[in-house]
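Fig. S4 source data, part A: sequence.
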Amino acid sequence: MNCPAFRGIVYTDDGAKIYFEFNGIALLRPEDKARVFTTSLSLRSGDARFAWVNDTVGAVEGILNTTADQMILRAYACQNELATVPV
C-alpha cells in the first residue's frame, strides 16, 4: 500500500489555470502489479469562469498500470446540497 499525493496545475485550452490536489490510498493488484487507487480531489481556480471548482470536492477511483504506462480513472464531483438550506 502507498499513499499517493499529487499536486499541480492544469492549463485549459482557453488559458485558465486550475490547481489540483490528489490524496489517497493505492493498493497493488497481485495479478498484474497494477496500482488500484482511491483519492480525494481538491480543485482551486482564480479564473471566474471556473469559480465553481472552489466549492467542489471530488473523489477519484482508478487503476495505474506502470508496465504499460496506462491509467484509467473516474472522477466524481461532490457539492454540498445543504448549503442552500436555512438553519
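Fig. S4 source data, part B ends here. Residues 5-80 form one domain.
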